Backbone:
């Protein structure tokens, strides 16, 4: 997915929000915003928005002298979600359709996205849970479950810290012995890394790997060979969040995208309204012999 003009002010807003959150010195804020303005002026808008965000957040980490500037925010929302887990698990178990309820709650967790909002309150998380349980769902949960049952290997692409606690509910509806969950290879915004997956207890359920990259999405060209092998071998990929949709929606692979549409650009691309709950199967299926990872083209 390309970067649209509407994405440019959003990326600048991300920059300012990060500066405010970090309480960076005025001189650092000024330098960072000016650098980002210069980069955005000459940016290649044919690239997905997460590619531009990667460069911005590398600068934020460099100028703030913090390897993981959002670490305390990630811990806060992980602790909040873990505290809700027993209640949410009971909600799934008591529902007339546990798989669909688990899917809805996994989508509710997608609200924990500081790349889109910049800030988030606990009240907004609770509101997202209520909304997800009652709002219409665009997509067929049974289609996902049937695809999961038929798959020999499933790769689940996580999105944000805190959100992955909600993902546990959906993971438990899948054949866990065939699932591998992937997190980011290095901190970027509040995306989950291995430390966050462990804090969420994901490693006790399924194998956890990282993708070797610091893109707030899954840009195959920057991922590690280990991740690319898992991606190539997976019969089914489940991709959480807008960043994964933006970077993988044109990739020839059987992918189910799970997200809440949180901005007008994504909503327009998906043909939905902002706030809608989305389960969307990719229309770009791989052809025989096609390798989207490029591994087959590399010299051993």
Residues:
């Amino acid at each position: 997915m390309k970067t649209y003009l509407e994405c440019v002010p959003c990326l600048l807003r991300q920059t300012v929000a990060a500066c405010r959150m970090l309480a960076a010195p005025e001189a650092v804020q000024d330098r960072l915003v000016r650098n980002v303005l210069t980069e955005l002026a000459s940016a290649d808008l044919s690239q997905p928005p997460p590619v531009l965000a990667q460069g911005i957040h590398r600068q934020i980490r460099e100028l703030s002298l913090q390897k993981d500037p959002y670490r305390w925010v990630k811990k806060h929302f992980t602790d909040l979600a873990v505290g809700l887990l027993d209640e949410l698990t009971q909600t799934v178990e008591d529902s007339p359709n546990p798989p669909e309820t688990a899917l809805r709650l996994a989508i509710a967790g997608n609200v924990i996205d500081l790349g889109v909002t910049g800030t988030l309150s606990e009240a907004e998380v609770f509101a997202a849970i209520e909304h997800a349980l009652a709002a219409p769902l665009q997509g067929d949960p049974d289609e996902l479950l049937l695809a999961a049952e038929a798959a020999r290997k499933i790769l689940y692409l996580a999105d944000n810290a805190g959100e992955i606690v909600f993902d546990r509910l959906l993971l438990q509806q899948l054949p866990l012995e065939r699932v591998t969950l992937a997190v980011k290879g290095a901190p970027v915004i509040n995306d989950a890394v291995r430390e966050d997956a462990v804090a969420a207890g994901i490693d006790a359920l399924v194998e956890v790997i990282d993708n070797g990259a610091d893109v707030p999405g899954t840009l195959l060209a920057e991922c590690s060979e280990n991740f690319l092998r898992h991606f190539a071998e997976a019969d089914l990929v489940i991709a959480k969040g807008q960043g994964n949709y933006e970077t993988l929606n044109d990739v020839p692979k059987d992918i189910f995208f799970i997200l809440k549409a949180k901005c007008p650009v994504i909503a327009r691309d998906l043909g939905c309204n902002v706030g809608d709950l989305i389960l969307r199967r990719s229309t770009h299926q791989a052809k025989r012999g096609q390798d989207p990872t490029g591994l087959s083209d590399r010299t051993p």
